[in-house]
Automatic annotation (TrEMBL):
Protein name: Flagellar hook-associated protein 1
Domain Flagellar basal body rod protein N-terminal: 7-34
Entry annotated with the keyword Cell division: no
Flagellar hook-associated protein 1 D2-like domain boundaries: 335-412
Annotated keywords: Bacterial flagellum, Cell projection, Cilium, Flagellum, Secreted
Domain of life: Bacteria
Domain Flagellar basal-body/hook protein C-terminal: start-end pairs: 607-645
Length: 648
């Protein structure tokens, strides 16, 4: 009877474990990271009774955790991609809304500014029109500054999110290392603490949403966690802590790395952070955000340099040559904090040619002999051969004594929109007139005419500006013009082909040819006769003149950016289109990522998830087994009582 009682007892205990396991599944059906558990039941062997073998009962061999590492890894990968795209999409939508705003964007301010230029050109003597031009210019500068400030604000937000994410990553790394240690202590050859394994997997899931990690098995049921190209976060029960610091060349930029025991900071490349929220933030910051800030600054710097270049070729109401309309754009130069303490090198950079300007950043490095400037967008290296030297529209000036491996970061356009400002405050200083005037003598017998004339940047060379009229006389016998300023060569361009005539030599006359000397350009067309004269001299009555104003207004539709391939408006439109396209791509990819996560979740839950219908059936099954085992024990008790009664 004792064997029957023991068999019943074993069945009762097994059913009890089954009920507890099923109940645990049911109560944790909605617990994040919980994996279904099943009590694995087996027999306890048999005993030989002479006539054969008789069973001795049952036992619970294990409580199995239903977990598929391949499906769990696939789900983590899908969730890391989803988190990355969500972070990227959330950030880029801010820039998209900012740039595409039809009222707060840059396009209306640009249009208003050039409308002011056109109005002042139409009424050059009007103080009101000139004041309106200045007001529109200041509004345009403010619009650039406001947009740049908002992009800077977004950048600061990214820095804050990166810092908080690093703190979360460190927290998870510490917790995973601690639970690794606990699991190792509780693991036996027969069993592992299932609930702790679930808890660790859930921590890995949350960590993976911050930065994509790879997980490898370690000793004694512990896991090792890495990210990027193998950078460690957890090795066994040892966590590795990340920290943040400012970039050695840009104090406005947060970088991530390891802090060594001696306090040294070892920076990690941004490319090490792929997937997860951190991956999305890094891709956004290094891609769309930097491109938008640089492209906006490129428009601002190109506008300032192109407008200034034309404005200084004009004449103001006081009869003086024009000055800079906008203040010069100083490029950001960051001196690497790791440069040698013995170095006294200094680099300054000023935007001087908007047409050659790119939206790229540059690295300036000293190799021990020479400076080299590397364009980061494509890696093109330009050797510095002198100081100052212009490279891609930026004039570099080098001073001090450099040391080998000295490094500087130059960002020509990153802060250009912020620093754009109007230099002129006096309306009479607006140079709408041209500094030269031309005329054909009224006594001329021929029908030749001279154009109004213009000047180029060579006119600003000392000694080239006209201080008195030059009278050009036609000699019919030789067919030449004479009377050009002494000491200046004359260039005659016919059908695009220039010919230079040394100073003091007669210049052959060609109908309609362009004639230039000392930065002065004009053309004479028609048929002159002997002794006909033409004068080219300073503009002494230019109050109502607006020839330079017309050239300034023409900059709106002139291809002055990207080596003469884009206007200010089209360049800005390209930037808006780029950001809009990237934002739309991110939305589409995010939708696809959501579907992938749902798919991966369904696959993982099909193995590890709790099915309440199935668990309800198991509950009834174990209940019946419990009752049946109890009945076995009851029968054994009754038989035992019967045997005892026979003895009485």
């Amino acid at each position: 009877m004792s064997s029957l009682l023991s068999i019943g007892k074993s069945g009762l205990l097994a059913a009890q474990v089954g009920l507890a396991t099923t109940g645990n599944n049911i109560t944790n059906a909605n617990t994040a990271g919980y994996n279904r558990q099943v009590a694995i039941q087996g027999d306890t062997g048999t005993q030989y009774q002479g006539f054969g073998y008789v069973g001795t009962g049952t036992e619970i061999q294990a409580v199995r955790r239903y977990y598929d590492n391949f499906l769990a890894t696939s789900l983590r990968g899908a969730e890391a991609n989803q988190a990355s795209l969500d972070a990227y999409s959330g950030q880029i939508s801010q820039i998209d809304n900012l740039l595409a705003d039809p009222t707060a964007g840059l396009s209306p301010a640009l249009q208003d500014f050039f409308s002011g230029v056109q109005d002042a050109t139409a009424n050059p003597a009007s103080a009101a029109a000139r004041q309106s031009l200045l007001s529109n210019a200041q509004s345009l500068a403010s619009r650039f500054q406001d947009m740049s400030a908002k992009l800077t604000e977004i950048s600061s937000g990214v820095n804050s999110t990166i810092t908080s994410s690093v703190n979360e990553i460190n927290s998870y790394a510490t917790q995973i290392a601690a639970i690794n240690n606990t699991i190792a202590g509780l693991t036996t050859d027969q069993a592992a603490p299932n609930d702790l394994l679930d808890k660790r997997d859930q921590m890995l899931t949350e960590l993976n949403k911050l930065v994509k990690v790879s997980v490898t098995p370690g000793d004694n049921n512990m896991l090792n966690v890495q990210f990027g190209t193998g950078q460690p976060l957890v090795v066994g029960n040892q966590p590795f802590q990340l920290t943040t610091s400012t970039s050695p060349t840009d104090v406005s930029r947060v970088t991530i790395g390891y802090q060594s025991s001696n306090g040294n900071f070892s920076a990690l490349p941004d490319s090490a952070f792929t997937g997860g929220q951190m991956g999305g933030l890094m891709e956004f910051r290094n891609g769309a955000l930097d491109k938008a800030q640089n492209a906006l600054g490129q428009v601002a710097a190109s506008l300032a340099t192109a407008f200034n270049a034309q404005h200084v070729l004009g004449q103001d109401q006081n009869g003086d040559l024009g000055t800079n309309f906008f203040n010069p754009i100083q490029a950001y130069v960051g001196t690497n904090t790791h440069n040698s303490p013995a170095s006294t090198a200094d680099v300054t950079a000023v935007v001087t040619d908007g047409s050659a300007l790119t939206a790229s950043d540059y690295s300036v490095d000293y190799d021990g002999t020479n400076y080299n400037v590397t364009r980061k967008s494509d890696g093109q290296v330009t050797a510095v051969t002198g100081s100052p030297q212009e490279i891609d529209g930026v004039t570099y000036t080098f001073s001090g004594t450099p040391q080998q491996n000295d490094n500087f970061l130059v960002r020509p356009t990153y802060n250009a929109a912020t620093s754009l400002s109007v230099a002129i405050t006096d309306t009479t200083k607006i140079a709408l007139a041209a500094p030269i005037a031309t005329a054909a003598a009224t006594a001329n017998a021929g029908n030749a005419k001279i154009s109004a004339g213009s000047v180029d940047k060579n006119y600003l060379t000392p000694g080239n500006a006209l201080t008195a009229p030059a009278t050009l006389t036609f000699d019919s016998a030789s067919g030449t013009l004479s009377g050009f300023p002494a000491g200046q060569d004359v260039t005659v361009t016919v059908n695009g082909t220039p010919t230079v005539y040394p100073a003091g030599t007669p210049v052959p006359y060609t109908d309609g040819a362009n004639i230039s000397f000392g930065g002065v350009n004009f053309a004479i067309s028609g048929t002159p006769v002997d002794k006909d004269t033409f004068t080219v001299g300073p503009n002494t009555s230019g109050v109502g003149d607006s020839r330079n104003g017309a050239l300034l207004a023409g900059l709106q539709t002139k291809n002055v950016m990207n080596n003469g391939t884009a206007t200010f408006q089209t360049s800005y439109a390209q930037m808006v289109n780029f950001v809009g396209t990237k934002a739309r791509e991110a939305q589409i990819s995010s939708t696809a990522a959501d579907a992938s996560v749902k798919q991966a979740t369904a696959a993982q839950q099909s193995v590890s998830g709790v099915n309440l219908d199935e668990e309800a059936a198991n509950l009834l099954r174990y209940q019946q087994a419990y009752q049946a085992s109890g009945k076995v024990m009851q029968v054994a008790s009754q038989l035992f009582d019967t045997l005892l009664s026979i003895g009485n």
